[in-house]
Amino acid sequence: MTETSGNGVATLDAQETKKQRKKQAKREAKAMLKLERSREDVEKAEQKVAKAQARLEAARTRLRNTEAKVEQMEQASQIEVQTPQQESEVTAAPANLDGQEEHHQPEVSSSNAGESSSDSGTSTPDTRSN
What we know:
Blueprint: H1 6-92, H2 110-121
């Protein structure tokens, strides 16, 4: 079935070339499919990245809001703590009718005053032995 004439060699070469072209077309088709799958994978990955970025930004926003709430709560608690202290300072030191604070001087008891005056003149020697 193969021709042995001069045309036979050309026919084999044509068939061989046709087979090679067919193989090449299959390889190109596989490469194109692989390329298309790769592009789809990249697109899916980009969509995942976009979603992740959106989640990240939402988480950062929640964090900032929570930090702001905590800061407001801390400031409010500091104000509440300072206000009762200031009120207690005002009630602890009542003012005269003139608007001046009263100053109380400690009273000296009569027993201490008498002892200090009597002891100042005489002193007792130390009788303890070393």
